[in-house]
Design a protein that fits this description.
The chain is of the alpha/beta class. Helix content is 43%, strand content 19%. Bound molecules: 5'-O-[(R)-(carboxyoxy)(hydroxy)phosphoryl]adenosine (KG4) and zinc ion.
Length: 343
């Protein structure tokens, strides 16, 4: 089954042509980082406008890269999938309208996908061996969620952040340190050259709960910087390394603790922060030590991308037997869509 998937929930306009859920024939991601960088965060209105400008070129490029055109579309595409939430209302609307328009013109079934389900199944694109039950940790700019995937479409959210998402904490810390936006990847690079034991930031393990809280580490950094302004590059790298260590250890500790408690032998990561080099290394090492299989997507599938939406859409049809209903033209974006809300 060939699915054309569209993702516009935040600041990436993306389309992908995915065959049978895991064969990515093409994926195009147009990032808006340059537009939002000067505001140190995503500006919803600017995001919507950029999606409007990008959506057609991104879809066209996706089809071209897969060797298709609008002329051959009808013959080669079986369904269209689109992210319907959660996300920014205006941003989601652009993707949903594009998907509905194409579904209507070409008489194709339309598959609505929850953005978090995309991240949740992003590991499936490259690993056919993974099957539920497994533990998934979604760590991104907007989410930090520990999810027990009991079966396809059957999820239990064990815990979530009570304040900042992991990516948000990285971005805000980077801003305090005078680094550019988005700070997560820049802080990560600097941390590679620093001493992770230089400053002992507390680890917010939130014992007795599966929730996370990153605002405390952020405040600890702010207080540290007030008392110890950045002296030089070496000092900056040490702060980055120590901050990254605290966040990575917290995430890793909680994930493996949950895996043990629920007797799960597989952990899948998803979301932009799973691109963090220390988090990847730590999960890999802990996985080997604890005999837990760890699935971490390639960098391109960590960030927001339409291939994971195509993969999730396929699994919904195949594994949950939802079948392909015809164009749901009544479909509307749902900015605060919950993971449990299964379409
Ligand atoms: O999943 P994503 O692309 O978009 C959201 O849905 O939020 O995640 C973006 C987040 C940003 O906060 C960014 O700073 C963070 O992921 N991020 C990283 C790294 N690469 C991206 N954080 C830490 N280390 C990285 N290497
Ligand atoms: Zn995301």
């Amino acid at each position: 089954m060939n699915i054309l998937a569209i993702e516009t929930s935040c600041d990436e306009t993306s389309a992908s042509l995915v065959s049978n859920g895991t064969k990515v024939k093409s994926v195009v991601i147009s990032s808006q980082i340059k537009i939002h960088a000067k505001y140190f965060g995503v500006v919803p209105e600017l995001a919507s406008r950029a999606h409007i400008e990008n959506i057609n070129p991104v879809i066209t490029e996706t089809l071209t890269k897969a060797g298709l055109s609008f002329g051959t579309f009808s013959k080669k595409i079986d369904a269209i999938a689109v992210t319907v939430g959660p996300g920014l209302a205006g941003a989601l609307l652009v993707g949903v309208i594009a998907a509905k328009t194409m579904a209507s013109i070409y008489h194709k079934p339309l598959i609505p996908v929850n953005h978090l389900e995309g991240h949740l199944y992003s590991s499936f694109i490259e690993n056919r061996s993974i099957r539920p039950p497994f533990l998934c940790i979604i760590i991104s700019g907007g989410h930090t969620e520990l999810i027990l995937v009991e079966d396809f479409g059957k999820y239990k959210i064990l815990g979530a952040t009570r304040d900042d998402a992991a990516g948000e904490a990285f971005d805000k810390a980077a801003k305090m340190l005078g680094l550019e936006y988005p700070g997560g990847p820049i802080l990560d690079k600097r941390a590679e050259f620093g001493n992770p034991d230089a400053i002992k930031f507390t680890r917010p393990y939130m014992k007795g709960s599966w929730d996370f809280s990153f605002s405390g580490i952020k405040t600890a950094l702010l207080n540290y910087l007030k008392a110890n302004p950045v002296k030089n590059k070496r000092h900056l790298n040490d702060i980055c390394a120590s901050f990254r260590q605290a966040i990575a250890e917290t995430i890793c500790y909680k994930a493996f603790e949950a895996a043990e408690k629920f007797n799960l032998k597989q952990i899948a990561l998803g979301g932009g922060v799973s691109a963090n080099s220390l988090i990847r290394k730590m999960f890999d090492q802990e996985g080997r030590k604890n005999k837990v299989k760890v699935f971490i997507p390639s960098l391109i599938y960590c960030t927001d991308n339409a291939a994971m939406i195509g993969c999730a859409a396929y699994l919904k049809q195949k594994e949950c037997g939802l079948g392909l209903s015809y164009t749901r033209l009544q479909l509307t974006p749902t900015p605060s869509l919950l993971l449990e809300n299964w379409y």
